Amino acid sequence: MGITAKGRATRQRIVEGAAVHLRSAEPGSLTLDDVRAITGTSKGQLFHYFPGGKEELLLAVARFEADRVLDDQQPHLGALTTWTAWRRWRDAVVARYRAQGAHCPLASLLGQVTTTPGATEVVATLLEQWEGHLRRGIVAMQADGLVDAELDAGRHAAALLAGVQGGVQVLRSTGSSRHLEAALDLGIDRLRREPART
Amino acid sequence: MGITAKGRATRQRIVEGAAVHLRSAEPGSLTLDDVRAITGTSKGQLFHYFPGGKEELLLAVARFEADRVLDDQQPHLGALTTWTAWRRWRDAVVARYRAQGAHCPLASLLGQVTTTPGATEVVATLLEQWEGHLRRGIVAMQADGLVDAELDAGRHAAALLAGVQGGVQVLRSTGSSRHLEAALDLGIDRLRREPART
DNA sequence: CGCTTCCTGGACTCGTCGGTCCAGAAAATT
DNA sequence: AATTTTCTGGACCGACGAGTCCAGGAAGCG
């Protein structure tokens, strides 16, 4: 019945191994043989733990990576209640993606999953949580009178998230973090100056 | 010697046919047989016109599509000299990507090209031109006194481009144009209110 | 018309990769 | 200890798709 501790360990090893491969120089397209090689497992095990085959495996890895994305921005992202926190968050994002360079594990991953409901769901969830953190941060700042209460928090959170996403994408293509930094700096700065309206 | 008119026509037919396929429901991965089927050509022709094989073909299609991206934003993008022009440009971008929905031909295309210098070059060029238009628009507005002259045009152009890119990406994942619109509207609005600084 | 060059078609090869299958080792359970 | 379940290894298969090759048709050219 069910699964043993050993089994769970192996499954975990597979997911993490695949993730490691994605972070390597040339992730290109991840093949099951790649996973086998890096994790020291056999085809049998792969299909034992992921009966849905490659797709199920990749989706598991995608979820794993999606969690990392947010984790890497903590603890700042979870407590954007002061300008200092925003600043630290900004730095963490820039640092993370600059270090990552052209290799966005999630991106190269999702490029391989045939556009299936599962894949979009992973992305949607990630974006939702991310934006939620930003929005709650803005609201908290408003509650403390640090940001104009009139400002539409949801709208600004959405725009900021878009800026970050786009900045990262440009960074992946050109290698420069200029756009990411501009989007972050101007986006955060915008929160300060909103009261100047009319 | 060289190439005849007939040959050029065939080559063009191949590129455009491939582009059509990418715009269809399930572009997934474009195979040479797909191209063959849709363009009524043979393997021989494909390799005759693209000796570099699939990669060279895909790159040609990518360049073709990249041009379309900017063309679809004209004439507005080329003459962002009034607030009305900015508004129209904004609407054109939203309309284009909303219509396109989850299918970004360029994105699904570049996902298939093994990260080669050629691929990044296409993207880099596109982004560069795009940003150049935005920057020149801001500068023009500054010259006419419609935008604060102190404002860093390059920085704002970069942030705006990032917002658009990210907005489109979110739209591709979630189907909602909320982020794209927020990024555009707040980004453009920011140009108006900059003088409020300090 | 003869000759060269370009264009077209499609059969064929060959590597890759996801997925299947089953035999047997290792644990758990009684 | 017996038996049942879970775990592991790897040989094997079949599909698919990129790229090769060459024979033959069309078009330019003296």
Description:
The structure is a homodimer of 198-residue chains. Chain A is mainly α and 198 residues long. Chain A has two domains: 5-58; 62-196, Tetracycline Repressor, domain 2. The first copy, chain A, is built from nine helices and no strands. Chain A has helices at 5-23, 32-39, 43-49, 54-71, 83-100, 105-110, 117-143, 153-174, 178-193. Chain A is elongated. The interface between A and B is large, with 38 and 38 residues. The structure holds a DNA duplex (30 and 30 nucleotides).
**Protein chains sharing the most extensive interface:** A-B, 38 and 38 residues
The SS-based structural class of chain A is: mainly alpha
Given as residue ranges, the uncertain stretches of chain A (5+ residues, pLDDT < 50) are: none
- Measured distance between first and last alpha carbons of chain A: 68 Å
- What kind of sheet is the major sheet of chain A? none
Keywords summarizing the entry:
homodimer, 198 residues, mainly alpha, Tetracycline Repressor, domain 2, 2 domains, 71% helix, DNA-binding
